[in-house]
Amino acid sequence: MTTLTIIIVCAFVFGYLCIALESLTKVNKAAIALLMCVVCWTLLMMSPTSFYPEIAGDQVIHHIAEVIEHHLGDAAGTLFFLMGAMTIVEIVDSNGGFNFVRDALKTRSKKKLMWRVAFMTFFLSAILDNLTTSIVMIMVLRKLVQSREERLLYAALIIISANSGGAFSPIGDVTTIMLWIKGVITTQGVITEIFIPSLVSMIIPAAIISLSLKGKFDKEQNLPKADISQFTKVQRDIIFWLGVGGLIFVPIFKTLTHLPPFMGILLVLGVLWTTTEIFHYNTSEDDTMAKRVSDIMTKIDLSTIMFFLGILMAVAVLQEIGILTAMGEGLNEAFAGNYYLINGIIGVLSSIVDNVPLVAGCMGMYPVAAEGAMAVDGIFWQLLAYCAGVGGSMLIIGSAAGVVVMGLEKITFGWYLKRITWIAFVGYLCGILIYWIERILVF
Known about the structure:
Blueprint: H1 3-20, H2 22-25, H3 29-46, H4 59-94, H5 99-105, H6 110-127, H7 130-144, H8 148-167, H9 174-182, H10 187-210, H11 233-257, H12 261-281, H13 293-296, H14 302-320, H15 323-334, H16 339-350, H17 355-365, H18 379-390, H19 400-409, H20 413-419, H21 421-441
Helix pairs in contact: 1-3, 3-14, 4-7, 4-11, 4-12, 4-14, 5-7, 6-7, 6-8, 6-10, 7-8, 7-19, 8-10, 8-18, 8-19, 9-17, 10-18, 10-21, 11-12, 14-19, 15-17, 16-18, 18-21
């Protein structure tokens, strides 16, 4: 490992610590992430031939420009998907589309609400994805829990439930989609063998968190809120099904057209935007512009988008200089043959750095075998799907769902680390134990 590599890693770690200590430094995490991104890429450019010795002369500069554009393209796809999903959910919410979802979850019992939110989030994330589901559930949660202190506990459970639900579905998480497209896991295999471990990794944390929730909500805070839109019930239902149904359609659209997921999101947004414009044209509401999509888009939290951009591009530097690959190879050498331990550690690492490059690195390092643990639906690949997905719940910035909820509810890294990390870790380990028992007794 060269001196420059060590400096880049130190810069990343320092930036990461500043993000973790946001509540103490009072500096927005998005600003730190952007600085960390630029500093890491600038350090790489100080001696590019150290990392690309096979490319001579000025060609290395051109090569790095192409590399940055490649990583930026990957990040942009995620960011456009995120912005589109957030806008769609905001449109549905601002026009009263989530009213019946709110009514279905509504209860005065704090514990009953927690379990309802947990299970709905878990199963929705398998159908939609953990990112979109988190946005939807936070919007609904805001209508049901007015106390911020209590709402943070529910929000944390949404992160855990969304990541657990996404792990057992081939379309529930970016990493499972990657493994599914690669062909190392099948739909039937991952659902039948990972469902119960994923369910356990949600139920155990939910049971622990429920101990902190006692009593009932005040009657006044749980009363049905007045409709915020003058749309008819039929129009609100149309908006809801176009929005949520459209989000469900996105993976189908990807399968049919082979276009990136963000193109499907843009299609749904375009259809929903056009529909609401037509509805507004026919309404007598005075302040229609306040609920037009053009105005709703100004409410999207851009700081969350910038934070995502900074983190993804900073992790891309670690990928380029070979740190992530070296970590994977080191794990393989240190724990050869112990796939439970290897994947368990990968899961912990996925809560620190983005799980997408980690899984991508693993797919590149470990070849698919004809039989054994490395075969299609083998222990290694199924555990990788579980650990990379569920492991991201241990830190709030360890998953897309966590980052979005962090931005929407302004949850600090320190609060989550102190109150939730150990709970998510217990659920994570219990899920691995259940998978081990399954393999011994059933499969």
